[in-house]
């Protein structure tokens, strides 16, 4: 029986640099796979090539319930169950919070009228724990934490089978990180399958069922979080070799 979501032999090079090299991973339905690694290890490139935003893989497959999504166009990948967020708060600054999410609902696979689209956007914002009193606030006027919630809500509006979260806790205060942790666990509790890139290791190890570590584009460890964190290859990747 195949995994709910898996990538096989995924690779991407830029000139002579192997950003992602022969990467294979699996994620079970309703579980969280944490993805760690030093800066430049290929984590975000992995998300980029899985979603084809902004570029695709050189080779390899990404299978969602046995179907290779890499044969699809970027918008088809999103409509067929794989949604992502970005490291930076990728929002339309001049649009209100709810209008940002409406951009997604109006382009989702299921055709709906305006009233239904608004309802779907409101539901996505509620699921992302975004304050209802700020729905009509321009996204550019919101603090970083709330802009992140708008971006997450936009991804959730696609009703994804797999959600890719790219450093949702970056630039946040400890209190805000705790709220992101609660949100991630809430989404898991709702049955969502999540791939989570994060440099805040206490958050990553707290929520992940399994943890994968990349270094220079290659998978160097994959397993239970506590075991992976103690792996000598992981310690070396983060801290360097002992002299």
Count of structural domains: 2
CATH second-level architecture of the largest domain: 3-Layer(aba) Sandwich
CATH class placement of the largest domain: Alpha Beta
Biggest sheet architecture: 6 strands, mixed
Portion in beta strands: 15-25%
End-to-end separation: 46 Å
Approximate helicity band: 25-40%
Strand/helix succession: EEEHEEHEHHHEHEHEEHH
For the secondary structure, the number of strands is 10
Q: What general form does the structure show?
A: globular
The mean pLDDT is: 94
Number of helices: 9
Low-confidence regions = none
Widest sheet, order of strands: 6-7-8-3-9-10
Radius of gyration: 18 Å
CATH superfamily of the largest domain: P-loop containing nucleotide triphosphate hydrolases
Class by alpha and beta content:
alpha/beta
Assign the CATH topology of the largest domain: Rossmann fold
């Amino acid at each position: 029986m195949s995994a709910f979501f898996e990538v096989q032999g995924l690779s991407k090079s830029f000139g002579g640099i192997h950003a992602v090299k022969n990467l294979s991973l699996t994620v079970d339905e309703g579980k969280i796979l944490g993805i760690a690694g030093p800066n430049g290890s290929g984590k975000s490139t992995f998300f980029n090539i899985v979603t084809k935003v902004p570029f695709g893989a050189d080779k390899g497959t990404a299978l969602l319930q046995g179907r290779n999504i890499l044969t699809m166009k970027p918008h088809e990948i999103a409509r067929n169950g794989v949604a992502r967020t970005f490291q930076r708060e990728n929002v339309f600054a001049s649009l209100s919070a709810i209008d940002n999410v409406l951009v997604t609902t109006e382009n989702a696979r299921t055709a709906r009228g305006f009233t239904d689209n608004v309802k779907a956007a409101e539901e996505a914002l509620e699921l992302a724990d975004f304050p209802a009193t700020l729905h009509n606030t321009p996204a550019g006027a919101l603090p970083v934490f709330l802009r992140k919630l708008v971006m997450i809500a936009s991804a959730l509006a696609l009703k994804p089978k797999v959600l890719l979260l790219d450093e949702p806790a970056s630039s946040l205060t400890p209190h805000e990180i705790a709220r992101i942790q609660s949100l991630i666990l809430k989404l898991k509790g709702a049955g969502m399958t999540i791939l989570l890139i994060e440099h805040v290791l206490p958050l990553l190890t707290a929520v992940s069922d399994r943890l994968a570590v990349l270094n220079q584009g290659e998978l160097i460890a994959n397993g239970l979080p506590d075991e992976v964190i103690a792996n000598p290859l992981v310690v070396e990747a983060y801290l360097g070799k002992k002299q």
